User: Fold this.
Amino acid sequence: MNEAEIREQILGLARRLCRMRTADHVFVPGRTQVHYAGRVFDEEEMASLIDCALDGWLTAGPYAERFERAFSDYLGVGHTLLVNSGSSANLLCVAALTSPKLGDRRLRPGDEVITTAAGFPTTLAPLVQHQLVPVCVDVDLGTYNANPDLLREAVSRRTRAIFLPHTLGNPFDLDAVHRIAEKHSLFLLEDNCDSLGSRYDGKPTGSFGHLASHSFFPAHHITMGEGGAVVTDDQELARVVASLRDWGRDCWCEPGQSNSCGQRFTQQHGKLPLGYDHKYVYSHVGYNLKLTDLQAAFGLAQLGKLPGFIEARKRNFTRFHQHLTRYADRLILPEATPHSDPAWFAFPVTVRPEAGFSRGELVGFLEENLVETRTLFGGNLLRQPAFLDIHHRVVGGLSNTDLVMNNTFFVGVYPGIDEARAAYVMEVFDRFFQVST
Ligand SMILES: Cc1ncc(COP(=O)(O)O)c(C=O)c1O
Assistant:
């Protein structure tokens, strides 16, 4: 056999194994757990992954390049920079704003960044890590996004940026946020980790801010196992993010290239000798947050399935919403932000304080019956051990954020929830209400 034939045989066998495994996944109500999220893939991803492995490239290479181009096209942005996680993407978004390359626009320690405390810790963490001051505003119940009036109120002389998640896939009020950012010349960062495929005024979230982060952890809309991306339309910010991701290097040559700037041995940098090799010049105190080509190969096959995944998420969301409306006197149901079309990450529910039962009771019943639930991540992050002593400001109180911490949870809407699983989840909710009323 020649090389191509051997490769063909390996890929054929891998595809066959995948098909066998998929056929094994039979759902038995009350016996099989209904997860809140999970990897959904088939032989396409496996073939792409193995094809890449057989090339033996390993570090970011041809597949990463193809993914970056396809992802930029999908979002309609100029630049995608792949990284090893959504948290790394958030770190780079914030770090980029502190770059000396931005001159006077650069954020400095003590500058304020408006955000929320109801969310995931690594949206908040990079602000703390860069000695910036998070200014937390409360969220609205139902949308779980920052209240626009409070955002306006939160702006001070030190405010330099707004960094918000589109909570659980639901876009925040981009009209209001844009107006505030423009009026006060603020940077806008979007945490789009939970909302790939969501739209606001017809335009994809992740394409509005100066920078936006994405996560490809298995819970998200597409996965690479671990992985993430920063996107931007701004060439200067893209170079800064690439530098910070790639050890802090000044050179922007692609792997395997040399002297793309034509000045590799002729420039003066810092206090280095004239003409010091640009490949080893560092203009940022950087990291190495790159991913591997194997991750990109898996992700590329996932990206092709994104439209179908989004449809499945929307279908499950609509079904749950229509069914659970009958309990709206006891549950606050999720609401899409006006002008938005969310690709929901999950189906969040808040138990009304006057419901007559607690979140613990409802969640306990769902879990006992193998319907997996999660809280809205860290609840009120300012009450988490890691964030108790951080320098921060709160505008207008966080009573809704506290209610989210105490009374909100979500169930999944991911594409692994098929018709039978969705029907079962609704049946378990019904049983709870029959018992508790
Ligand atoms: C809103 C949000 N931001 C950031 C992250 C971090 O992503 P990763 O797990 O890829 O680091 C998550 C993770 O689920 C998230 O939900």
Notes: The chain has a mean pLDDT of 97.
